[in-house]
Design a protein that fits this description.
Length: about 260
Amino acid sequence: MSSQSSGSGRRRINMQQYSAEDEALNIISKEAEDRLAAKRAARSEAREIRLKEIEKQLNESDRVNEHTNEHAASKGSQSGSRHDSVESSDTDIKDTDFKAELRELEMKYRVAMMSSAQLDNEKQSLVYQVELLKDQLEEQNEEHTELQRDYKEKCRQYDFQKRDIKSMEQELNILKQQMTIKDKLIQESGFVIFANDKGEPVLQKSSQINSSNGAPPASSLLVSADVRDFLRKAEGVTLGTAVAGVNTNNSGVSSQAVLQTCCV
């Protein structure tokens, strides 16, 4: 009885400890979720700001390109008028050199513009990939937080079951020791257990058997080995009649025959 009460007390203490651990775990999880939500909001705001800056840079780049094209066109018209005025004084060879140089510069300008446009496209692609990777990283952080919470819960359940099993093992060892002591005492006393017709053992003292004219009730009997052998040889009689015969006809044996009865 004391082992059962101590075991239940330990379980109540374990439940109180785990209730405190649950509360602490819930607080930690809530704080982690709040921090993650704040990081997500800050990241979203920073993403919008970066997209606006990129759009602004693209607009400025378009304006610069338009201005450069207009400047090149005006420069070409001015150089054309200058060439017309110089035609009368310069030779045809210089005019050809200027035109070749102009074509070369225009070609370089077109190549530079194409390279700039290609770099802008690559930049936009890289920015998109960076934003996509940030979103994936954020999702992985959320999954990692969820896995950590599940892991802590599993560890908590494992510790609870481990402590409960340990407590039950201690109780089982105590019961085994008690059963060993009882079996040893019965064996040293030279008694054996007989089951009744229903197989329902109940503890009863031998004095109660003597008070009912030597006839024990229909129950299990704890008797000596001599009485057990005698009852096995008796035929056509019930357990109570046989024991009554032992008490009546064999008083020397019956005085030590029945120590106690066990019935439920």
